[in-house]
Design goal:
single chain
C-alpha cells in the first residue's frame, strides 16, 4: 500500500502548491475509515448468530459459514487489486462502503444458512477492497506527506474500531441493549461512511494503469537535462510510459539552454511537450504490460534474502492470525456460553487494540539491528504467540482466554509492524503495494488450504478446541524454522566479522 520526487515548477499566480491540498481528502478518508470501523456489534457476532435472532447451530457457524469469508477473500483479492488501480481507488472505496451496508443489512434481516453464507461473501468483498482505502491517499498527496497521512488514516480505523468495541460492551453490559440494536448502530455507522466516500476527490493518476498527467509532469520528474541533446531520467514510472525510451535520440540538439532557475524546468517541459504531446497526456497502460511489469518487480523484490525472509514470515503468520481471529469468538463461546453468562468480548477487543497500538508506537524507538537479529526475534515472538494460543485452548478459563488473546494480538501487531517497516524501507511505493498484495494472497491461499482441511465440514470439520491446538502447533513450527535460520544467519555474520580483520592484515604490506 505503499516514490517519486523531483524538481517542481513554481505554481501559477494565485494557485496554491499541490502539497496544500492534502487536508480535505485526508480528513474525508479518515472520517470514512472511522465510521466504517465503528461497528459495536462485531465483537458479539458469534453470539448473535448462535442466538435466537438467527438460531444457527455451532456446526453451521464454524464449519459452513465462517469458511466462506476465507474463500471469497482469496478469490476477490487479485481482481480487486487490479480494479483498484484501473478505476483509480474511489469507485472501489464506494464499493467497499456499499458492501458494508449490504453485509449489515443482511445481518439484520437475512435468515437461514444460505443467506448468511452470502453475507460472508459480501464481507469478503469488504476486506478485499481495503487496499483501496490504504492506497487512495498516495495518489492525492505529495511524497513528503506519505508518512503523516498514512498514520492519520490507520489511526482513524484503529480509533473507530476501539470506540465501537467499547460502545458495544457498555451497551450490552450496562444498558442491556439487544444485539439486534447493536447491529442497527453498525448499519447506521457504515451508511455514514458510504455517504462520506462520495465527497472524496477523484484521483487523476494511479500506480500502474494511469501513470502521467499533463499537469503533473514537473512533479514526476527527478532529473531532466536537455543540455547537448541529452535527457537523463531515473524515474521508474516515466520509464514505463510508452515512447519515453525514444526521447533521448529524438530531442533536437539545438534546444535552448537556460540557467539553473526553477522556471528552466518549465521551459524544458514545454519544449518536450510540444514535440511529444502524447507523452504528457494521461497514459493508460494495457493489462498485459502491467502484468509484465508486475512480474519483473516480483522477481526483483523476492531475489533479496532479507526481503524473502520477512515476506515468508508475513504470509505464514498472517494465515495463522486470520484463523485465530476468525474463530476465537467460537472458542470463547465454548468456554463460557454467552446465553448463560455475561461476556466481555467488546472490552477485550478494545484493550487488545489499544495495547497493540502502544506496542506499535514503542517499537519505533527500539534500536535493534534487524538485519542480524530479525530472524531470531521472529522465532522467539512466534513462540510466544504459539504459547498464547496453546494456553487459550487448554486452560478453558474465560479470563485466561482473554489475557492470552490480548498477548496474541499485541505480539502479532508488533511483529507485523516491524516486518512492514523492513520490507518498505528498500522498496518504492509501487513495489510495496505489490509485495503487500502478494504476501496477503499467499497468506489467504494457505488459510484456504488450512480451512478446507481443518474447519470446513467437507474436510475434517474438527471441533473448535482441536482447531486451536493445530493453530498453536502451526505457530510453533514457524518459530522452529526461523530459529534454525536465524541462528545460522547470526553465526554466518559472526564468522564474516572475524574474517574481515584477518583479510585486512593479510593485505597490509
Amino acid at each position: 500500500m505503499e516514490a517519486r520526487a523531483g524538481l517542481r515548477a513554481p505554481p501559477a499566480s494565485g494557485r496554491a502548491p499541490r502539497g496544500s491540498c492534502w487536508v480535505l481528502p485526508t480528513a474525508l478518508l479518515c472520517l470514512y475509515g472511522f465510521f466504517a470501523s465503528l461497528r459495536p456489534s462485531e465483537p458479539f457476532l458469534t453470539r448473535y448468530l448462535l442466538g435466537p435472532d438467527k438460531n444457527l447451530t455451532e456446526t453451521q457457524v464454524f464449519n459452513e459459514i465462517y469458511p466462506v469469508w476465507t474463500y471469497s477473500y482469496l478469490v476477490l483479492l487479485f481482481p480487486v487489486f487490479l480494479a483498484t488501480d484501473y478505476l483509480r481507488y474511489k469507485p472501489v472505496i464506494l464499493l467497499q462502503g456499499l458492501s458494508l451496508i449490504v453485509t449489515w443489512f443482511m445481518l439484520l434481516y437475512a435468515q437461514g444458512l444460505l443467506a448468511i453464507q452470502f453475507l460472508e461473501f459480501f464481507y469478503g468483498l469488504v476486506t478485499a477492497t481495503e487496499i483501496a482505502y490504504y492506497s487512495y491517499i498516495y495518489s492525492i498527496v505529495d511524497l513528503n506527506l506519505y508518512q503523516k497521512v498514512t498514520s492519520y488514516c490507520r489511526s482513524a480505523t484503529l480509533v473507530g474500531y476501539t470506540v465501537g468495541s467499547i460502545c458495544g460492551q457498555v451497551l450490552v453490559s450496562v444498558a442491556s441493549w439487544s444485539l439486534f440494536s447493536l447491529n442497527v448502530i453498525s448499519l447506521t455507522s457504515v451508511s455514514v461512511a458510504f455517504a462520506t466516500a462520495w465527497f472524496l476527490p477523484m484521483p487523476q493518476k494511479s500506480l500502474f494503469f494511469h501513470l502521467v498527467l499533463r499537469s503533473q509532469v514537473s512533479r514526476e520528474m527527478k532529473v531532466l537535462d536537455c543540455k547537448n541533446g541529452a535527457v537523463i531520467q531515473d524515474d521508474a514510472a516515466l520509464k514505463r510510459v510508452p515512447g519515453w525510451e525514444d526521447i533521448e535520440s529524438k530531442v533536437p540538439l539545438n534546444v535552448e539552454e537556460h540557467s539553473a532557475e526553477p522556471q528552466v524546468n518549465t521551459s524544458k517541459n514545454l519544449s518536450l511537450e510540444l514535440l511529444y504531446p502524447t507523452l504528457f497526456q494521461e497514459q493508460k497502460v494495457d493489462i498485459s504490460k502491467v502484468l509484465k511489469e508486475l512480474w519483473r518487480d516480483f522477481l526483483h523484490c523476492y531475489s533479496s534474502r532479507p526481503m524473502l525472509c520477512w515476506s515468508v514470515w508475513w504470509a505464514f503468520s498472517t494465515c495463522g492470525y486470520f484463523q485465530v481471529i476468525n474463530y476465537t469468538q467460537g472458542l470463547w463461546e465454548m468456554v463460557l456460553p454467552s446465553q448463560s453468562f455475561e461476556i466481555y468480548n467488546g472490552g477485550v477487543e478494545a484493550v487488545s487494540t489499544l495495547l497493540g497500538a502502544v506496542a506499535v508506537f514503542a517499537v519505533g524507538y527500539v534500536k535493534v539491528s534487524w538485519a542480524i537479529w530479525g530472524e531470531v526475534a521472529l522465532a522467539l515472538f512466534s513462540l510466544i504467540i504459539a504459547a498464547a494460543v496453546y494456553v487459550m485452548d487448554t486452560v478453558r478459563n474465560i479470563w485466561v482466554c482473554y489475557v492470552s488473546y490480548v498477548i496474541f494480538r499485541i505480539v502479532y501487531m508488533l511483529l507485523i509492524t516491524i516486518a512492514t517497516f523492513q520490507i518498505a524501507t528498500n522498496l518504492s511505493m509501487e513495489r510495496y503495494a505489490l509485495v503487500f498484495g502478494i504476501n496477503t494472497f499467499i497468506a489467504l491461499a494457505l488459510q484456504t488450504l488450512l480451512t478446507l482441511i481443518v474447519v470446513d465440514s467437507s474436510g475434517l470439520g474438527l471441533n473448535i478446541f482441536t482447531q486451536f491446538m493445530i493453530y498453536a502447533s502451526y505457530f510453533a513450527a514457524i518459530s522452529l524454522v526461523f530459529l534454525v535460520s536465524g541462528i545460522h544467519s547470526v553465526m554466518k555474520n559472526y564468522r564474516r566479522q572475524e574474517e574481515m580483520p584477518s583479510r585486512s592484515t593479510a593485505s597490509t604490506p
